[in-house]
Amino acid sequence: TNALRRVRQYEATSNAELRRRVASALVEAKIRNSRRVLQRLSASRGESAATAQKNASEALLRLRKSVRRGCFGLDSLRGMEGMAAARYFKRLADFFPEEAPFRERSRRPPLDAANALLSWTYSIVLGEIDACVRLHGLDPGIGFLHALEFSMPSLALDLLEPLRAPLCDSLALALLNRSILRKEHFRVSEEDGGTYLSDEGKPLFFMAYERAMTRKFVCRRGEPRVDFRRVLERQVCSVVRILEGGADADFFVMP
Fold first, then answer.
1. How far is CA 123 from its chain centroid?
2. pLDDT for 176 beyond 80
């Protein structure tokens, strides 16, 4: 019911510099988190010095620095985000199990179990973000980085970006590598040929999902412990502060 807050949000769509500044912070946070996830995965396997890891890490670092130092428009930022995602997924593929390999990102429909689980996890987290955005009086369709299109929850998608690698991708990898979800927990649709999580697999997913969302950790030294639901709300509150007081963007970055 906070009409004034939404009015300010609508006004922000015509402020090109504000949109550019917030979008830049979102892209930088996403790239930084993607790189950090790859570093942790590689370290856990003793592959930090592997050529594939070093190449991916260096490429992501260059892109992150370019985003931070540059003054790019929205189209350029989206392009850089796309390049970073391509490098990230190329390396991330090495960490999926043989039973559920990841070859390339596929959507609408997802063509294998790995993509099915990634898309499903993104959708579930997006739903939580959408609800939190509405709870704080914002319009989920008015964002900064994503285009303003009919039926697109642009703001919710914006706030999903920094959480894709540390929350969604990490959860999907854990479920597959630990065999919590296996081949029999996915089905192939006769309608579109896509692969989807089955009804038998969904309860297993949600048990692991709830643990991931409520696991406590420290974002910054000296701060109290938080969980991902608190992180999610903090990001929404950051948008509120940006709209109401001109504060700097403050999106989640991995410790």
1. 10
2. yes
Tell me if 53 sits within 8 A of 38, measured CB to CB: yes
Count other C-beta atoms under 10 Å from residue 149's C-beta.
8
Tell me the pTM. Answer: 0.94
218 φ, ψ to 5°?
-105, 125
Contacts of 177 (CB under 8 A, 6+ apart): 95, 96, 97
DSSP 251: -
- Name the pairing type of β-strands 195-197 and 186-188: antiparallel
Nearest to 38 by CA among 82, 87, 80, 83: 87
Predicted pLDDT at 222: 82
Whole-number average pLDDT of the chain: 94
Give the integer Cα–Cα distance in Å for 129 and 160. 7
Contacts of 250 (CB under 8 A, 6+ apart): 25, 234, 235, 238, 241
- Look at residue 164 in the predicted model and tell me its pLDDT: 98
Q: Is the pLDDT of residue 249 over 90?
A: no
Tell me the C-alpha to C-alpha distance, in Å, between residue 140 and each of 75, 85, 184, 235, 246. Answer: 21, 23, 36, 13, 19
Through-space distance between the first and last CA atoms of the chain, rounded to whole angstroms: 35
CB 204 within 8 A of CB 185: yes
